[in-house]
Design goal:
This protein is of the alpha/beta class. The protein is built from 20 helices and ten strands. The protein folds into two domains: 301 residues, Up-down Bundle (ABC transporter transmembrane region fold), CATH 1.20.1560.10; 173 residues, Rossmann fold, CATH 3.40.50. Helix content is 64%, strand content 9%. Helix 5 packs antiparallel against helix 10. Bound molecules: adenosine-5'-triphosphate (ATP) and magnesium ion (MG).
Length: 581
């Protein structure tokens, strides 16, 4: 509760003004039955026309005031909630960018989407409609009850007798509603997940003509969500008839008893009319109270989930005493490196890996799928957190290096490259501060893209990705390579980065990279062994362990796993070797 109120802090002046406007609006509203009473009671005295006119004018004027202040209150309070939502959304987005891979391994993307959409709007509704209706309810409810008591205490007691029963049953319903709302939100998350997956994997779904089963699966998820929400609707639906019933009973009492009193001359007709007016005014606050309670439940759950995300700390943090290296030479050493994904209970993806890469070497990692190549390569730029003392760059623990220095020294091409929906230029210049044409041109050349880019409709300004033209798999990979080399990093990492380009182009690109990066460390992983004989050093990883290392010929002589992989590769890809002559 305190935390939610804390959200209003920057806007407290506007909020207070808004609450003031509600008081004025309610005040004017409360005078209306009273004016009616005056008018009706004066009818008996055959008053001058001007008095009635004055009363009528007051009635109109006060109604206008009531409406005006209500409008102002709405603008200020609901406006405030919109501003808070805007702030929170930005915070959430910033937080998403701050968090690292381990968070995204853990939290499904449907969940994230639900937080940014449904939770955000539930919280906004609570922040806006909450104070607006809650304060109106309190002010109007209490004042109307007091005015009724002032008119006739006993009659008030009779008319209000059903209300406590009503409030009690509302409280009972609230518990059940809470549980249902939780369930509803979970179902919604799953639904978001389904949509997200379908949209991301649409091409796959189409190619397997899996449209129908997907529709059915979506319908099932939708049905579960619908069922959960229907239970909420049912529970919420009970509130309204209950309130009407209580209100109706009150009205019956008031008419039966109050009518008797008017006939007996103990009460004036005007007083009864005013009394009924206030009783009517009590109805809405009671209904609103139930509604606000629902808002509170939804909003509170949403707020908890949003703050939970905002409170997440990235696993990868700057070392409190970072070591600033003068230069990065690119010597890499792993010392008994063991790495597990997730919370540490899964089997290690890398086990006691010890290896040493001299600065300036061209190194290739090979081995069966799932051997740990990508895992090792992602640890160097610290994309995942690893224990201290196990991976060193130029003799310094990577966890001690400033993250920005580390990442700026490394050009990293992940196994699954990602293109922004933007121009080719912006995709390549992504990490650069002031990109120069020469840098981009050089990157294009190194990635073997210079001729192909010229054939695109707008050259470098062609928009690619979701909102633009679709590049081929090999072109996409090469744009990712161009992005990594554009900043001219000290170390280049290519994680299977050329798997989709044909062997001949691969050879050209590798030649260019080798020439350009001569003297700098280049780490690659690959399943294509065509050009591997040129690597200075080869590491063979199998099930997370380093099983062999050495130069191509040495490894062939050992007749171990490498020789086996190589012979099989030659057999299957005979043609590639023949093309090269
Ligand atoms: N994000 C992840 N969460 C949990 N486990 C993972 C994750 N990424 C990889 N793994 C596991 O870690 C092990 C090593 O995977 P890794 O991707 O490093 O292998 P690889 O040698 O790059 O394989 P490939 O040749 O197919 O690219 C595998 O058992 C894999 O299932
Ligand atoms: Mg891999």
């Amino acid at each position: 509760m305190r935390q939610i109120l804390e959200l209003y802090r920057p806007y407290r002046k506007v909020l207070l003004l808004g609450l003031g406007a509600i008081m004025l609006s309610s005040g004017f509203g409360l005078t209306i039955p009273w004016i009616l009473k005056e008018a009706i009671d004066r009818l008996k005295e055959r008053p001058a026309g001007t008095t009635l006119l004055l009363l009528a004018a007051a009635l109109i004027l006060f109604t206008v005031f009531q409406g005006t202040f209500r409008f102002l209150a709405r603008m200020m309070i609901v406006g405030t909630s919109r501003h808070i939502e805007y702030d929170l959304r930005n915070q959430l987005y910033r937080q998403w960018l701050r968090l690292d891979s381990s968070f995204y391994d853990r939290v499904p993307s449907g969940d994230l989407m639900a937080r940014a959409t449904q939770d955000m709007s539930a919280l906004r509704t609570l922040l806006g409609a909450g104070p607006l209706h809650f304060s109106t309810t309190i002010i109007v409810g209490v004042s109307a009850a007091l005015l009724m008591a002032h008119l006739d205490p006993w009659l008030t007691l009779y008319a209000l007798a059903p209300f406590p029963i009503l409030l009690w049953s509302l409280k009972e319903l609230r518990h059940r509603l809470e549980a249902q709302l939780h369930r509803g939100q979970e179902r919604y998350q799953e639904l978001c997940g389904q949509v997200q997956e379908a949209v991301a994997g649409m091409r796959l779904i189409k190619s397997y003509t899996l449209g129908h089963p997907m529709v059915a699966a979506f319908r099932d998820k939708g049905e579960e969500y619908l069922a959960a929400e229907m239970r909420v609707v049912r529970l919420e639906g009970i509130y309204h008839p209950l309130t009407s019933l209580a209100g109706g009973l009150g009205v019956v009492c008031a008419i039966a008893i109050g009518g008797q009193q008017v006939i007996a001359g103990q009460m004036t007709l005007g007083e009864l009319v005013a009394f009924m007016g206030y009783l009517g005014m009590l109805m809405w606050p009671t209904i609103a109270l139930a509604w606000v309670m629902g808002l509170w439940q939804r909003g509170k759950v949403a707020f908890e989930r949003i703050t939970q995300t905002l409170a997440e700390e990235p696993a990868i943090r700057e070392h409190p005493q970072p070591i600033y290296p003068a230069t990065v030479r690119g010597a890499i050493e792993a010392r008994d490196l063991t790495f597990r994904y997730g919370n540490g209970s899964s089997p290690p993806a890398l086990t006691s890996l010890s290896l040493s890469i001299p600065a300036g070497a061209t190194v290739t990692l090979v081995g069966p799928i799932g051997g740990g190549k990508s895992t090792f390569l992602s640890l160097l730029p610290r994309l995942r957190e690893l224990p201290e003392g196990q991976l060193l760059l130029d003799g310094v623990d990577v966890t001690r290096l400033p993250i920005s220095t580390l990442r700026q020294s490394i050009g990293y091409v992940p196994q699954e490259g990602f293109l922004l929906s933007d121009t080719v230029w912006n995709n390549i210049a992504f990490g650069l501060k002031d990109p120069e044409e020469s840098q981009i041109r050089r990157a294009l050349f190194l990635a073997g893209l210079e001729e192909e880019i010229a054939t695109l409709p707008d050259g470098l300004n062609t928009v690619v990705g979701e909102r633009g033209i679709t590049l081929s798999g090999g072109q996409r990979q090469r744009v990712t390579i161009a992005r990594a080399v554009a900043a001219d990093p000290r170390i280049l990492i290519l994680d299977d980065g050329l798997s989709s380009v044909d062997a001949e182009i691969e050879r050209i690109i590798l030649d260019r990279l080798r020439t350009h990066f001569r003297g700098r460390t280049v780490l690659m992983s690959t399943h294509r062994l065509t050009s591997i004989d040129r690597a200075d050093l080869i590491f063979v990883l199998d099930r997370g362990r380093l099983v062999e290392q050495g130069r191509h010929e040495e490894l062939l002589d050992r007749a171990g796993l490498y020789a086996h992989l190589w012979n099989r590769y030659r057999l299957v890809h005979d043609s590639e070797f023949r093309v090269e002559g």
